[in-house]
Design goal:
single chain, 85 residues, alpha+beta, 4-stranded mixed β-sheet, 3 helices, 14% strand
Length: 85
């Protein structure tokens, strides 16, 4: 379901490794919140093992996600600007 939202341009991957809405889709807010909460916990766990902050882990993950994104998906650059791959 998340992949469909990404493909449809409803959500994009932000510079911190989380999903952000690009278009209104109120009925999907719970799904996106749950996904971002899961990612936050994973980033914290990795950060504890690597001795860095969860924010650094999320930013590194965002770069990986951007590299693997499919054509047409929205990605946020480190400077905050969005582009469509």
């Amino acid at each position: 379901e998340i992949q469909t939202l990404k493909t449809d341009g409803v959500v994009g991957e932000d510079k911190d490794g989380f999903l952000q809405f690009r278009k209104a889709a109120g009925d999907k807010q719970g799904l996106i919140n749950a996904e971002n909460a899961d990612r936050r916990e994973i980033y914290k766990a990795i950060a504890a093992k690597q001795g860095v902050s969860a924010e650094v882990v999320g930013q590194r993950r965002a770069l990986q996600i951007a590299d693997r994104a499919k054509k047409g998906e929205w990605i946020q650059k480190a400077d905050g600007n969005w582009y469509q791959k």
